[in-house]
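note to self — DONT lose this again. spent like an hour looking for the file last time. sequence + predicted structure for the chain T wanted, 325 res
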Amino acid sequence: MSRDLLLGLDGGGSKTILACVDRQGSIVALRHGTALDPMADPDWPTRFADLLASLQDLLPDVRRAVLGLPFHGEVEAISRQQNAVVASLLGMPCEVLNDVHVAFEGALAGKPGVLALAGTGSMGWAGDGRDRHIRVGGWGDLLGDEGSAHWVGREALSQMTQALDGRSADKVFADALLASLRIGEAEVIGWSYLNSSRRSDVAALAEVVDDLAETGNATALTILARAADYLIDHVRAAARRIGTPQPLVWSHAGGLFRSATVLRLMTEALGAPVAPDLPPIGGAILRAARQSGWTTDDPAWRARLAASFAATIRPGGFRHSGSVA
């Protein structure tokens, strides 16, 4: 029997989630895959096709799709390729967005405000509730991404090498990072230059820094405080540029917000955040539902959708905060 389904995709910097949802807000199918990052994996269209193939029995019932893909809207050639690949593999009406855009849609359910994104990269994304959006940051790890997990990891490595040289005295911090990397001091340079997964491995060190901060380590606390300051600047600049009403409404997404230290410092500066209404994949589904004329303003429908995702998506990342971003 045919039924109306929606398809959503969240292709963030570290993983991809694909979901099909029915009119009741229940997940019919959920798939996990590797990141569809065109910069890191030129063969990402094959990964995307493989994910879709796992849903081939459901695709005829999908009426609309919204897909959040990394770098969309940032690099013209990549955006053209992403649009073409999606159009070639999906026959229903589709909208391709930046992955941070769908995270915004999920966290604030389309209401005016600012999303602070701090995962592998960082960005502030603001919307006025009428589908006008601006972004702050998101320049990548060479030009920016201040306050992101990668930035935290890179700062941690710098502090580690300073301690190994004797330029700083925090040997405890350096030893903790070396233990996490499972290397010795003589292997550091080789790890840095010969590691094919360096970007994600550097970002993963943010959790080690957070663990050390929880013990009161001064170096770790200083790094996280600087990260929070950068993210606060992202939020304030985004709010100022789009003219969001006061008091500021902001929410968050990304693994760094599972750090209780970062979340506390940002709350002290910006006020309490709005708890994310839906995860990023939920933002893709919510936008597709609105475009399809479904009754998304019904709180009960959104609650069912949120509960459906909460029951099927396991939060990962830091252990110290109750936030699920």
